[in-house]
Amino acid sequence: MEFSGTQVIAASRAAVWAGLNDPETLQRCIDGCESFVTIGDGQWAAVVSAAIGPVKARFKGTVTLSERRPLLGYSLLGEGDGGIAGFGQMTARVTLEDESYDASSTRLIYSAEAQVGGKLAQIGSRLVNTVAVKMADAFFTRFNELLTAGRRSALDEAATGPGAQTAHAAAQPGAAPQRDAAANVQLQVNGRLVQCQVDDRTLLVDFLRRDLRLTGTHVGCDTSQCGACTVRLDGVAVKSCTVLAVQASGGEVVTIEGLATGQGLHPLQQAFIACHGLQCGFCTPGMIMSADSLLRSGEAVDRRSICAAIEGNICRCTGYVNIIEAVRQAALAAPEVLA
Known about the structure:
Largest sheet: 7 strands, antiparallel
Strand order of the largest sheet: 1-7-6-5-4-3-2
Order of helices and strands: EHHEEEEEEHHHEEHEEHEHHHHH
Structural class: alpha+beta
CATH class of the largest domain: Alpha Beta
Number of helices: 12
Shape: elongated
Distance between the termini: 47 Å
Helix content: 25-40%
CATH topology of the largest domain: Alpha-D-Glucose-1,6-Bisphosphate, Chain A, domain 4
CATH superfamily of the largest domain: START domain
CATH architecture of the largest domain: 2-Layer Sandwich
Number of domains: 2
């Protein structure tokens, strides 16, 4: 599994080099990093809590730098063990260059190769690769923000070693700090009116899980492929990772938590239990919400229509046989329950 990229950092090479060798800066840039402790020259021990698709774990490992050329780049070896979740190993090469159109900026080029084992290997290289690229992008975005905002401006003065140079200011004089834009969101969620102010980039799935604590809607891929985040929006099944919360504003959302009534479980939920249409259960909420859309459509429920309804939902456990049977059984429920 290989990936690469280029980032333009709004700081001098001296500042970027110092930041890439500073454990405090690195820890602040790694999502879920609990500790990042120096154990040797260019070597750190790290603890990171991360979720890769359905696999969540606390990884303990080391990061080791080699072939270090001050202000030019280095090679990196990262190794982590997440226990039963599996393990990962990554080698990378990072190169620094002056940005041609802006002498105060630095072009950072990286290429990496990763290997995983255990449960991580079972969820598929495509998903793991997608998550790895997003984690790398998030790291460099945060790194850029830290230096641009001047929070690590002292690194320029602290940069030492062969070839160290005087750094340019990390932020332009008089530049106002960037601020996130906020948006008002008003929704009917599971029959309850909800009004919140959120970042206008917030995905509907994140709004439901983080702001409303409706964690039955799962995040399984971050690429809109798995369907685990499916909800009903204005009567239609949608993948909530593809919709901004502000886009859904004014609408009506039903999640898996709102499917059942005070009288008991929904027929689909009952059928999934009776037919054992689940194993690990991670895909089940999205699978049920997609099937619910089929039952509400009035379309004839048969194997063809069921397969078409859930084709955007991935299950890595059951082989779909019992899921299809569960939907067929649910269709036999009283029509008024499904209305």
